[in-house]
Amino acid sequence: MTFTSTRSAGSGWRLPNLTAPIFQLVAQVQAHRRHRQTEKMLESLPAELRKDIGWPASDATDAAPRSPR
Predict the structure, then answer these.
(1) Which pTM does this prediction carry?
(2) Average pLDDT for residues 44-52, to the nearest whole number?
């Protein structure tokens, strides 16, 4: 006599259900990091180049300070 056991599709932990939110968070952190690196690179350019490409001025007399991220 042979015994077989099968689990139904809905029982137990499913790996994709656990890892998807973690991968989404990692992707968001990576995107934010790339965005911040790009901003830093653009802000390090000379003022004349930033003006030519339309990058907003970043001087201390700015009336509306940027919100922290």
Answers:
(1) 0.54
(2) 91
